[in-house]
Amino acid sequence: MSRFELDARRMLCPMPVIKTQNKVKELAEGDILAVVCTDPGALSDIPAWARINGHTILGHEENDDELTITVRVGG
After folding, report:
1. Domains in the chain, ordered, with CATH?
2. CA 35 to CA 60: how far, in whole Å?
3. pLDDT digits (tens, 9 = 90+) for 32-61
4. What is the pTM of this model?
């Protein structure tokens, strides 16, 4: 299991989800991806995408205008 970070700051919907999807394709099952973004819509979009695609949201943090959504890659 490895940990990765994706910078999706200043990207608007649907780009944070698309960038997350593209990055996850490069990762192995069990890897952890922290997606850092500024689009508040990502807080609902990325978890919805993760559920549909078999990934797990481990949590999220909000810091000023930035969100970090942590995803565990599923099988």
Report:
1. 3-72 (3.30.110.40)
2. 9
3. 999 999 999 999 999 999 999 999 999 999
4. 0.95
